[in-house]
Every structure is written in C-alpha cells, then in structure tokens.
C-alpha cells in the first residue's frame, strides 16, 4: 500500500517535533521515472516491551512517502503499552500480531514468512529510518539488477534521539566481513527476497549476531553486496541495548559463527589466512568489554589470546593499555598513587 501522509496518522505525543513526528518524506510519484511500478518493499519490525521507542520506529517507516510499502510488526507479547501503540497504527500495517515467540530471530522469520515484497529488511523497535530511505534503496536496486544486497550510512543516537556518532559503513570487502569488523549496519541493510530464499532464514539460535551471520551467508553464496553512500537509518544505543548488556553472549555467538565458517565448512587458503585475525578480533571484543567493567582476570585472558593470535596489535595503545592494566590488575594511575603514598609515609617525601 502507499505510505500514509503525516495528516493521516495519529497526532504525535505532546512535545515531540521534527522527524518523524511533525515532518515527513516527500510523497514519491506513483511510478518510477521509467514508468515501471515501484518494487514492493517489505519491512519487518520485531518488538518486545519497547513502548518508549516503538512509535518513533513505526512513524519512521510509514512516513517514507513510498508508494508500495508492506509493513509487518511481530510483537512477542509485550505488556508495557507497546500493543496499544501498535494498534493505533494498525490501519497502515499489512499485518501485526502480539504473541509469545522464541526471540528476536524467530520474530524476524515470522515476519519474512508473510512478506511478499521484492525487497526485504528488518528494523528493530528502537531504531529508525531516515527520510526517503526506501526510495533511495528501491531506485538503486532497480538500476542494478545484479546486486543482491545494499547497505548505506547509519547514525548512532541515544535514548533521547540525540546524535552521538556514526556507524563505520564503507565499501564492501570480504576480509573485514569474515574478520568481524563491523561495517554493515543492520539498520541500513536491504536485500532481495530471492536472496533470502537462496541462503535460508535468519538463524534462530543466534540472538545477537544473526545479522552478521546472514551477511556472511549472502556473500559466500556469491551474491553481490554494495555500499551506497547515503544516510538511511539511525541506530539507538543506550545501556539496556542488547549490544551493550549481553556482550558475553555476543562473543559466544561470534565464536560459534566462526567455528561454522572455519571448522565445519571447507574454505580455500585465503580464508585460512584470515582465521587468526577473525578469532583475535572476537577475543579483543570480549577483552575490552571485560576491561571496561574492571573484570581484569577475564580481560587478561581474552586480550592475551588476542595478542597471541595477532601480535601486531601490541603496537596500538588502545590495545596495549587495557592489556597492561589487566596484567597489573588495577589502573596504572592507581599504582602511581600507591607508590606516592608509600613515599610520603615512609620517607617523608612531600611534593613541592
């Protein structure tokens, strides 16, 4: 169905202004410039107890001004008011349901099973699209039929919607993808329905890195993935975000994906050359997170493994400092203060 206009949607909550509350994307023409119909774009939003953010997510999809949108929301049985918000926008949804599920990946698959669009994507219930994102993606994929997946730039925002940084999107490269160097923001990624059918559904035993696993399967199956330098989405980061609060599980899932890639699947010499770096990056990811929580024993274990797999990291201060602190067991400045206190107490040393 065509996207609704701002005047057709329920009014925004009191005090909310700007995109997507009081601003909308321009309505695109009924057909593409060449006269052909716009490809149907199916967006799935998995949701569970995100009443604080889900309305902004919904409006950022519906106010795209896109002529052929299919929007599906799969809620996991929320009890925080999310269902009431979803129900307000039900007239513009192709389908929605609120019932218990087996987690985010299962919800995404439930949505994709109902999707009929040529182009697919999922947008989590605390993230948003930028104005005009769907039109840009559709035009690019229609002009490049050889491309199976496209992704663009993405902003980082906090729980208040304030800009806090950019996601490191860049041109596609297989090596950093294999080595778990994040450069494909899930929020700004779109792929063809035919691609998903070829590689299979989102893996439901993965809850935090299912997007990385899917990108790997798409790339390794031979589909072309292309970066488009256009701002398409915003990624919300706050303390309760799964990315921040479940880093240990994320690390375990990353190791499982790498095991499947390097151990259970035969790959060529090129992939074997990347193996050490890939595992080193996951150990570094875990080590840095443990270090930030002052869990120095766990940090030391993973940072040492990372250094052993990839010694060149020792040249970088952002790696070396956490490693040294984790080896000592407390920040260097604390040891300096302790030494100063000893000098003051025993030797009568005074700073002049």
Query: What number of structural domains do the residues give?
Result: 2
Low-confidence stretches: none
Radius of gyration: 23 Å
Largest sheet: 9 strands, mixed
Shape: globular
The CATH first-level class of the largest domain comes to: Alpha Beta
Order of helices and strands: EHEHEHEEHEEHEHHEHHHHHH
CATH architecture descriptor text of the largest domain? Alpha-Beta Complex
Annotated CATH homologous superfamily of the largest domain: Spore Coat Polysaccharide Biosynthesis Protein SpsA, Chain A
The CATH topology annotation of the largest domain reads as Spore Coat Polysaccharide Biosynthesis Protein SpsA, Chain A
Portion of residues within helices: 40-55%
Number of strands: 9
Percent strand equals 15-25%
Cα distance spanning the termini = 76 Å
Q: Structural class of the helices, strands and pairings?
A: alpha/beta
Describe the structure.
The protein is an alpha/beta fold and 352 residues long. It has 2 domains: 6-244, Spore Coat Polysaccharide Biosynthesis Protein SpsA, Chain A (Alpha-Beta Complex), CATH 3.90.550; 266-334. 42% of the residues lie in helices and 16% in strands. The chain has helices spanning 54-62, 82-88, 104-114, 133-143, 174-178, 193-199, 210-220, 242-245, 247-262, 269-292, 296-309, 317-328, 332-347, and strands at 41-47, 69-75, 95-98, 119-122, 128-129, 147-157, 163-166, 189-192, 224-236. Strands 1, 2, 3, 4, 5, 6, 7, 8 and 9 form a 9-stranded mixed β-sheet that branches. Strand 1 (41-47), helix 1 and strand 2 form a beta-alpha-beta unit. Helix 9 packs antiparallel against helix 10 (269-292) and helix 10 packs antiparallel against helix 11 (296-309).
């Amino acid at each position: 169905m065509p996207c609704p206009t701002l005047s057709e949607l329920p009014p925004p909550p009191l005090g909310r202004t700007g995109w997507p509350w009081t601003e909308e994307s321009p309505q695109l023409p009924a057909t593409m410039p060449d006269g052909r119909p716009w490809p149907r774009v199916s967006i799935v939003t998995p949701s569970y107890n995100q009443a604080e953010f889900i309305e902004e997510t919904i409006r950022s999809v519906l106010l795209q001004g896109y002529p052929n949108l299919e929007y599906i929301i799969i809620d996991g049985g929320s009890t925080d008011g999310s269902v009431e918000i979803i129900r307000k926008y039900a007239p513009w949804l192709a389908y929605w349901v609120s019932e218990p599920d087996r987690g985010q990946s299962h919800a995404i698959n439930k949505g994709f099973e109902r999707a009929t669009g040529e182009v697919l994507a999922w947008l989590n219930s605390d993230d948003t699209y930028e104005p005009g994102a769907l039109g840009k993606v559709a035009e690019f994929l229609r002009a490049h039929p050889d491309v199976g997946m496209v992704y663009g730039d993405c902003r980082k925002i906090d729980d208040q919607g304030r800009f806090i940084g950019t996601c490191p999107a860049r041109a596609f490269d297989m090596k950093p993808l294999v080595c778990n160097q994040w450069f494909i923001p899930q929020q700004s990624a779109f792929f063809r329905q035919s691609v998903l059918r070829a590689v299979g559904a989102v893996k439901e035993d993965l809850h935090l890195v299912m997007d990385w696993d899917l990108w790997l399967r798409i790339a390794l199956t031979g589909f072309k993935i292309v970066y488009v330098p256009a701002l398409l989405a915003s990624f919300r980061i706050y303390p309760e975000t799964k990315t921040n609060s479940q880093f240990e599980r994320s690390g375990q899932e990353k190791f499982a994906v790498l095991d499947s890639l390097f151990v259970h699947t035969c790959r060529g010499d090129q992939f074997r050359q990347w193996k050490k770096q890939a595992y080193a990056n996951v150990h570094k990811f875990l080590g840095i997170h443990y270090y930030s929580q002052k869990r120095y024993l766990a940090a030391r274990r993973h940072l040492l493994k990372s250094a052993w797999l990839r010694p060149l990291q020792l040249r970088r201060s952002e790696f070396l400092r956490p490693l040294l602190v984790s080896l000592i067991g407390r920040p260097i400045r604390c040891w300096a203060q302790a030494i100063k206190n000893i000098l003051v107490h025993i030797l009568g040393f005074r700073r002049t």
